[in-house]
């Protein structure tokens, strides 16, 4: 089976378009046999390279969870992938405490826009079962939504999780990412308590904060 995914002309649909995230659009194509995720431990200058098959060999998690966008909408979907902590366990990075450590995510990028990056707190991400996702609603991620791999911390706005992941860097610096520098978004990226449009329910609902689990 050929896993090569080629970008098709997007259909017009009612739910918000993920193309906003990419500005000029995602990569035109990604060759899964050539793609690798680089995981760098900067302080010890050590790197791991994982193929998509490596990542899929880690026990899969399938969870129905709600993500929230800073553009005032939210959607609940069924995500397939692995927990961030499962990835760390896979490479032998097992700690009782991740305080003071941060995860910088860097995208594959495009020739037009270059690479996109975002940094999150590892301890919070682990506690919230942050996922590295390669499926949505039982199907491989389309390019628009982050093929072959994307990160979502469900307690943070969507801009804090990079689509089309190419590299993860573990460091002691909480760096400003693309959207913090470009649009002035908050570095922490925590979901703010206010009313959002709930795409899957076609209604507005007040979200308190953090991960939404009650609807």
Automatic annotation (TrEMBL):
InterPro entries: OxRdtase_Mopterin-bd_dom, OxRdtase_Mopterin-bd_sf
One Pfam short name: Oxidored_molyb
SUPFAM superfamilies: Oxidoreductase molybdopterin-binding domain
Domain Oxidoreductase molybdopterin-binding: 27-179
UniProt name for this protein: Sulfide dehydrogenase
Lineage: Bacteria, Pseudomonadati, Pseudomonadota, Gammaproteobacteria, Chromatiales
């Amino acid at each position: 089976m050929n896993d090569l995914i080629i970008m098709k002309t997007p259909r017009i649909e009612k739910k918000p378009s993920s193309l906003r995230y990419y500005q000029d659009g995602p990569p035109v194509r990604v060759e899964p046999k050539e793609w690798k995720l680089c995981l760098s431990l900067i302080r010890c200058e050590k790197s791991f390279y994982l193929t998509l098959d490596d990542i899929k060999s880690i026990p899969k998690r399938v969870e129905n969870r709600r993500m929230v966008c800073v553009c005032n909408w939210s959607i609940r979907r069924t995500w397939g992938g692995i927990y961030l902590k499962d990835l760390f366990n896979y490479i032998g990075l097992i700690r009782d405490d991740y305080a003071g450590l941060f995860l910088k995510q860097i995208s594959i990028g495009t020739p037009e826009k270059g690479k996109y990056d975002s940094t999150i707190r590892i301890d919070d991400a682990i506690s919230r079962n942050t996922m590295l996702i390669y499926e949505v609603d039982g199907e491989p991620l389309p390019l628009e939504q982050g093929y072959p791999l994307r990160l979502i911390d469900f307690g943070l706005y969507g801009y804090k999780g990079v689509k089309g992941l190419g590299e993860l860097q573990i460091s002691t610096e909480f760096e400003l990412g693309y959207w913090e520098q470009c649009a002035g978004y908050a570095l922490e990226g925590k979901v703010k308590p206010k009313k959002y449009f709930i795409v899957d329910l076609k209604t507005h609902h007040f979200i308190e904060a953090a991960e939404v689990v009650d609807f």
